[in-house]
Amino acid sequence: MESKFWHAYVNYYTITVDVLLLIGIYFFLKLPKEKKANSLYWLPLVILGFSVIYEALGGYVNSNFEFKKAVNEFLGNTENPMYNIWLYNISNKQITTVLFLFLIKIWIEPSKKKYINWMISIFLITAVVFQLTGVEPLYLDQPFIAALAANIVLVSCGLYFIGMITNDHYLDSHPLRLISFWQTTILLFTYSLIYINSVARIYIFGISRELAINMANIDRVLGISVRAMLLLIIISPFLNKVFDREPFYVPSRKSDLIS
Fold this sequence. Notes:
Elements: H1 2-9, H2 12-30, H3 33-36, H4 39-63, H5 65-75, H6 85-107, H7 113-132, H8 143-166, H9 168-171, H10 179-205, H11 209-235
Helix pairs in contact: 1-4, 2-4, 2-11, 4-6, 4-11, 6-7, 6-8, 7-8, 8-10, 10-11
């Protein structure tokens, strides 16, 4: 049990993500009251906190086979109860994707925000239907849902860059001094590479299980880079000499996220 616990919780990825969250909390508490109420700053902190929670839960599930077996049997997986892919599907492929879509929505010009709402609705409805009908069970790989998640994030990033090259507000700005540019760029490359890596890993797993497991480290490194950028968003108000003000109004109320 001790070795399982050590392997699950004491590794470079888990420790790094935990440290990023702690630093994020520290700087968030130092923000002025009006910025704390701004979704530009509390949403990245929520994503950081959620990632720590599901990584910790994943470590617990991996160290508690009886619990993992019980959940798998509840979901209908009695043949291979040793995997906790259901947790990855819910937390990483689905909830985290929606949270990132809300984050991208903050950056894009107001006229295009409605498209993000449509994509979120389509994604959630599709994921629920596919899982309830058994097309892509929760306890197995979900290639179609994963592809849909990756593509709507890429399309959302594309909406941001379209606005950057067509809208006067962005044309008058310096992209390299916008935190939104760096966040969207990293999300674009990260989701592209993680999707390609996950597809390749499915086939490689049948050839070399060890190589497929090692390829998962690519996802971890990319995941750390995204979380580091989330932290940078929280810290950005303290870096006025590095980043410029965003061209568009950023919502300060939670209700603005669904508008």
